[in-house]
Design goal:
Number of helices: 13
Structural class: alpha+beta
Distance between the termini: 29 Å
Helix content: 55-70%
Strand content: 5-15%
Shape: elongated
Strand order of the largest sheet: 3-2-1-4-5
Order of helices and strands: HEEEHEEHHHHHHHHHHHEE
Number of strands: 7
Largest sheet: 5 strands, antiparallel
Amino acid sequence: MTAVATVIGLGVLWPSGERPTTPYSAAGVSYPDGEVLRVGDPCPVVTEESTEFPDVCDDVDVRLDDAGEVTGLRVPPGVADAVRVGDRVTLVAIPKEGADTPDYGWVGVDRKPPLGWLALAFLLVVAVIARVRGLLAILGLVFAGLVMGYFMLPALLAGESGLAVALVGSTAIMFVVLYLAHGPSVRTSTALAGTLVGLLITAGIGLVAISTARLSGLGDESSLLLRNQADQLDFRGLLTCAVIVAGLGVLNDVTITQSSSVWELREAAPQLTRRQLFTSGMRIGRDHIASTIYTIVFAYAGTAVATMLLISLYDRPLIDILSDEAIAEEVARTLASAIGLVLAVPVTTAIAAATVAPAVRDGSAGTA
């Protein structure tokens, strides 16, 4: 039933219209690659005592692969400290009406080689340690990326509901990822059921948190830039989508662990009643909850370090800092995911205890 509803949701929400265009995706815009020939001096930090500034700073010269050079190209502050002569970089070339040469802008360093080697190392480690199961999990991750790239992001840009897109996309991902990595079985189906319940709880808590905290979804620089490029988007809906997707991986981890724990308990102690299985499974679940909550909080804190440092410079009380929208969004996202995670544990454990094989007493089967 859920699978059918997911397929219908994919069909209804699948983006079919034209996506919004920006100056960087208009006809004629290209992204040429090149090699850095010169790196200028970084611009000094502006302070109240600043009196002199160099005429040229934070600039680079680039030799393009398709012939030609770009000289004196300004780069964002701090880039000149990191870029070296010989680095491969990507620029954006925007045609200029009435001119033979386009306007060039900085995109960034070509980081595909180091990231590719890192990805290969990850693949090899997973293959050696987790073997086939790990490789299947990576294949599921690739599928999740395809759903994000070809369904969720285009659907959001097309103006579809962030809540609907997140629930349909996340459900589709979980169906494939769980059954691909763990195989089709009652155990996996139990984890899937617990995950879907956790997603619904997370979505509900997220909606309430966003509404009561009056969050606009514009708490970070990326959202503000996106608003300038695609102001038709519902940014509160995007925040709701982010809340749901953010807890997806950890939620999946907890539910599959709980389901497997109950099955292993049954294997080790076939005489346990379903109530005893639930009680034992919850003891495992409480330990898992404690460690996973740390994981969620520190993961979000790590992404917001720069924001927290910036806000802390204003020397405001901690409670006021938490009320700032940039931090409040992270707090709401963390707490909504954590609540969904915690409640998914007893739900999954109860479903597993109800669907696992019945207890065995004196060589005969019987339910308890």
